[in-house]
Amino acid sequence: MNSISFSRVSVRVAIDGSSTSKTLLEDVSLSLTERRIGVIGANGSGKSTLLRLLNGLVEPSEGTVEVHGDDTVKAVRRVRANVGFVFTDPLSQLVMPTGREDVELSLRRSIKNTRERAAHAEAVLDRFGLLPLADQSIYELSGGERQLLALAAVIAVNPKVLVLDEPSTLLDLRNRELLRRTLTGLEQQVVMSTHDLDLALEMDRVLVVESGRIVFDGDAAEGVARYRELCATALDEVPGLGERPGRGQS
Ligand SMILES: Nc1ncnc2c1ncn2[C@@H]1O[C@H](COP(=O)(O)OP(=O)(O)OP(=O)(O)O)[C@@H](O)[C@H]1O
After folding, report:
1. By the number of CB atoms within 10 A of the CB, which of 47, 57, 98, 178 ranks highest?
2. For 4-236, which CATH class?
3. Are the beta carbons of 177 and 200 closer than 8 angstroms?
4. Which residues have a Cβ under 8 Å from the Cβ of 203 and sit 6 or more positions away?
5. Does ligand 1 lie within 6 Å of residue 175's CB atom?
6. Is-contact 83 55, C-beta < 8 A?
7. Which DSSP state fits 133?
C-alpha cells in the first residue's frame, strides 16, 4: 500500500508550567498517493510538525498516521527504516566528522561489504558535486554544502519515502536546480515543506497549512496563489506597512 494517510490527526503540546495546551495541528485527514507533495505556509503554521509525524518524531495526540500501511507510533522502527528524513538544519543530522564518513554511515545497513560501501558513497558524493569536499570537516563546509551533504546522505540509502523539511533554504541557484532535478528523477514518494515557491510549483499536489489546519489541498499553481493571497491579507492587517503592490493605482 504505497500511500501515506492521516486520519483525524491533531497534535497538542502542554505549555510549560501550566495545564493548558497549544494546538499545533488540528483534525488533519489526508490520503497522499502522488509522487511529489509540497507543503507550504507561513512560519509557525505547522509544516514541520506535519512532516515530523511521518517518521514518528512527533506523535499524534489524536488520530493516526500510516506510512505504507505502518502506523507511525505502533510500528515506528519499520516506519523509520522506510522514511528518509532531511532536516532543515543539516547539523542536527550529520553525525560524523566528514561527509565521506557520514554517507558511509548511512549505507552501513544496506551495504555490508566495506569496499562496495565506500565506492557507493563516493558515487553519491560525486553526483552531488561534493567529492572534493568529502574529507573536509563538516564544520568547515559552507551552510549550502552541508545542506547538500545532508540530502546526499539520506538519498544514498534510497528510502521508500523521502521527507524533506525546507531542503533548499541555504542552496544557491545552481544547487537548487540540482535539487529540483534530483527530485524529478527519484522514483519514490517525496513530501517536502518549502518556502521556495518555484520548487512548490513543481509538485504534483500542494498542501497549504495555516495555523495548524490544511486550508488548501490540490493543484500546485492554485495552492501557491492561495498562499500568496493569505500572506497579502496577513500583511494588510499590519498597521503602517503601506499598501500592497498594485493597490491604490488607478
Ligand atoms: N514542542 C513544542 N512545544 C511548543 N510549541 C511548539 C513545539 N513544537 C512546535 N511548536 C510550535 O508549533 C508551531 C508550528 O511549528 P512548526 O515547526 O511546525 O512550524 P513551521 O510551519 O514548520 O514553521 P517554519 O516555516 O518557521 O519552519 C510554532 O508556533 C511552534 O513554535
Report:
1. 47
2. alpha beta
3. no
4. 34, 36, 37, 38, 192, 220
5. no
6. yes
7. G
Q: 164: Cβ below 6 Å to ligand 1?
A: no
* CA distances, 185 to each of 122, 180, 225 (Å): 19, 9, 26
C-alpha closest to that of 208 among 37, 58, 53: 37
- The residues spanned by each domain of the chain are 4-236
Grid cell digits, residue 106 = 548511512
- List the grid coordinates of 135: 574529507
Place of cell 527530485: 183
Pocket probe for ligand 1: among 18, 24, 193, the residue whose CB has the most ligand atoms within 8 Å is 24
- Nearest atom in ligand 1 to the alpha carbon of residue 15 is 4
Q: What is the residue-level pLDDT of the chain in tens, covering all 250 positions? A: 579 999 999 999 988 777 788 999 999 999 999 999 999 999 999 999 999 999 999 999 999 999 999 999 999 999 999 999 999 998 988 999 999 999 999 999 889 999 999 999 999 999 888 999 999 999 999 888 999 999 999 999 999 999 999 988 888 898 888 888 888 888 899 999 999 999 999 999 999 999 999 999 999 999 999 999 999 888 888 887 777 766 655 4
Nearest-CA residue for ligand 1 atom 1 is 13
Pairing of strands 62-67, 70-71: antiparallel
47 CB within 6 A, ligand 1: yes
74: cell is: 505502533
